[in-house]
Amino acid sequence: MFEVKATQHVLAVKDLEKTERYFLDKLGFSARFRVDGWSFLSLGGFHVMLGHCPDELPASDTHEHSYFAYVNCEGIDEIYRDYQQRGAEIFQVISDKPWGLREFGVATPEGHRIMFGEDIEPSENS
After folding, report:
1. Rounded CA gap, 68 and 58, in Å?
2. Domain named VOC: which ranges (predicted)?
3. What is residue 126's predicted lDDT score, i.e. its pLDDT?
4. Residue range 73-91, pLDDT digits in tens
5. Which of the four, 20, 48, 63, 119, has the lowest number of CB atoms within 10 Å?
6. Would you say residue 49 has pLDDT above 80?
């Protein structure tokens, strides 16, 4: 039987050290290992593989294509406050959306964007 156990997002980055530090210090990821221009990081079941690609177009230049992950989570207000305290770049403040999710978005120094969302009960006025 097919089962997805986790996902790993592969990101091309120009500055591996700076991006890795951002994920560790600002987004609370932990380092799994580093090998030959690659850094493998995790935040629970959310895994990221950062690849050193100095000649590639930065994510910020891809505009709306810079979104690479939507993280469905619980405890969104807690992680939002943590990211504010850590100084993460929050490009979309936390808010309740009409589609039944409480969401916010963060960006990395090179412009990769991650959305976080938690299911909420729809209001009776919806």
Report:
1. 13
2. 5-119
3. 47
4. 999 999 999 999 999 999 9
5. 63
6. yes
